[in-house]
Specification:
alpha/beta, Rossmann fold, UDP-N-acetylmuramoyl-L-alanine:D-glutamate ligase, 2 domains, seven-stranded parallel β-sheet, 18 helices, NAD(P)HX epimerase activity
């Protein structure tokens, strides 16, 4: 699914109005009708509803929602915020309808003192400012935002399209923003919903289709995307009847040191669960028995050193379709030297995680020696060590994309919506996963999955999109059965089979 900018969303509205064709008033009624239907499905007419309306088209949406709910018997009060801006044309049309039909349900508010006394159980609908907002909310309107946020614990807050005060395409840090429990967004996710700094604002996001013209959507390029199952089904490669283990590649996993062999075992198990035909794990001598017992399906080579890896570059040859490196590896000077030698001799895309990323942050010139198309998998702190700090999430997203293009690498930034930056400048946000996956070893499992997919001749882009999706989806299946609290990284691996079967049933 494409993620459009606020300007592109306005263009989509205009294109729909011109080419469906449909009037702007009718398109507003269609969008507001989706919101009203969502509210009717979840709330009864016994609950009082207060709709706060600005004077633009977001406020117009609020007026239509008020009209439709009043027609269904809901006790709605439309709170109209009277500030200096001129009302939009569609707002004016629907204000007249509301005033003619339900004049007693309108309450005009000209300052903070006009904020209503809310009865118990009231539902607040925020239709003050939408995607058109391009500056912070100021003055008494900011006071209204604070008033609404102050009663969040006692009342449900539903934002229409976007929480008021939230910028669609830029940072809203330290600005007054509505803290909604639910956001009813029209047709598309907004970029702001997917960034951690805005976690307190949107709550649960429900994207409601409003019938924007499909030609605009398909023909208009977008820099940002959010993954979905349809995308994954175009990427997935089903197994062939005459295949054998050599068909699905031989991967090399370089991982582990004394005290962190669990990371190596988790990555190895995940690599094989992702479908790699063969796997060799290079581990220090102290990890030989652990690996042979922990994942007997993997072959094992041992380093010259007992406690950490120092000569793994000698293992890299044409047998291996790809190499995954980093889980539990350690960051000794000897390990770093072997990593540099590995990059001199191995030129296929690799998966680079954990301590391999930490080595890159200490020796940043090695970034320029990574094979083109390699996959880096940092969490936010690792990303900062590699590329520097930023003042907000939008700046960090720009930095992420810029580095992927400059280095011609795939860089994923782990999070609730893991961001995947591609060498062509595109950025994908992953839609699967849950907070139960915030547990030690989860990243090692992802490294194994990505390594296993690269070994099977998935392109780096296909491997990273599919791998991150499956990793999150297996976590979702595990949490549904085990709870988020009780999940461990091993459970993600154990649910990989169900993830494949759920996403790609055999009859496909």
């Amino acid at each position: 699914m494409k993620i459009f900018t606020a300007a592109q969303i306005r263009e989509a509205d205009a294109y729909t109005i011109s080419n469906e064709p449909i009037s702007s008033t009718s398109l507003m009624e269609r969008a507001a009708g989706r919101c009203a239907a969502w509210i009717e499905d979840r709330y009864t007419p016994a609950q009082p509803i207060y709709i706060f309306c600005g004077k633009g088209n977001n406020g117009g949406d609020g007026l239509v929602i008020a009209l439709q709910l009043l027609q269904q018997g809901y006790p709605v009060t439309a709170c109209l915020l009277e500030y200096g801006s001129r009302a939009s044309e569609d707002y004016t049309i629907h204000f007249r309808q509301l005033h003619q039909q339900y004049p007693g349900r309108i309450r005009e508010i000209a300052d903070v003192t006009g904020f209503p006394e809310l009865p118990p159980g009231a539902v607040i609908i925020d239709a003050i400012f939408g995607t058109g907002l391009n500056k912070p909310i100021e003055g008494w309107l900011a006071g209204i935002v604070h008033k609404i946020n102050d009663v969040k614990r006692q009342h449900t807050i539903i934002a229409v399209d976007m929480p008021s005060g939230l910028m669609a395409d830029g940072s809203s840090r330290n600005m007054p923003v509505i803290h909604a429990q639910y956001t009813l967004s029209f047709q598309f996710y907004k970029l702001a919903f997917l960034l951690p700094e805005n976690a307190a604002f949107a709550g649960q996001v429900h994207v409601l289709p409003i019938g924007l013209h499909p030609e605009y959507i398909t023909q208009t390029p977008a820099r940002y995307h959010i993954t979905d199952i349809d995308m994954m089904r175009t990427i997935y490669q089903p197994r062939q009847p005459f295949a054998h283990k050599g068909t699905y590649g031989h991967a090399l996993l370089i991982a582990g040191s004394r005290g962190t062999m669990g990371a190596a075992v988790l990555a190895a198990r995940a690599c094989l669960r992702a479908g790699a035909g063969l796997l060799t794990c290079h581990v220090p001598q102290c990890g030989y028995e652990i690996m042979q017992l922990g994942e007997p399906a993997a072959m094992c080579s041992t380093d010259e050193q007992p406690d950490f890896n120092t000569h793994f570059h000698e293992q890299a040859d044409a047998r291996y379709k790809t190499i995954g490196i980093g889980p539990g590896l350690g960051t000794s000077a000897a390990t770093a030297r072997s990593f540099e030698k590995l990059l001199a001799v191995y030129k296929r895309p690799m998966v680079i995680d954990a301590d391999a990323l930490n080595i890159l942050s200490v020796y940043p010139y090695l970034l320029y020696q990574l094979p083109a198309g390699s996959i880096l998998t940092p969490h936010p702190k690792e990303f900062e060590r590699l590329f520097g700090s930023t003042t907000n999430d939008f700046e960090r997203l720009e930095l992420l994309s810029r580095q992927a293009v400059r280095l011609q690498l795939y860089i994923l930034l782990k999070g609730r919506y893991t961001a995947i930056a591609c060498p062509d400048g595109a950025v994908y946000f992953n839609a699967t996963g849950n907070p139960g996956m915030a547990t030690g070893g989860s990243g090692d499992v992802l490294t194994g999955i990505l390594t296993g997919l690269l070994a099977q001749d998935y392109s780096p882009k296909a491997a990273i999109l599919l791998g991150v999706w499956l990793h999150g989806y297996a976590g979702d299946l595990a949490s549904a059965e085990l709870s988020q609290e009780a999940m461990t990284a091993g459970d993600i691996i154990n649910f990989m089979g169900k993830a494949f079967l759920s996403c790609f049933p055999p009859e496909m």
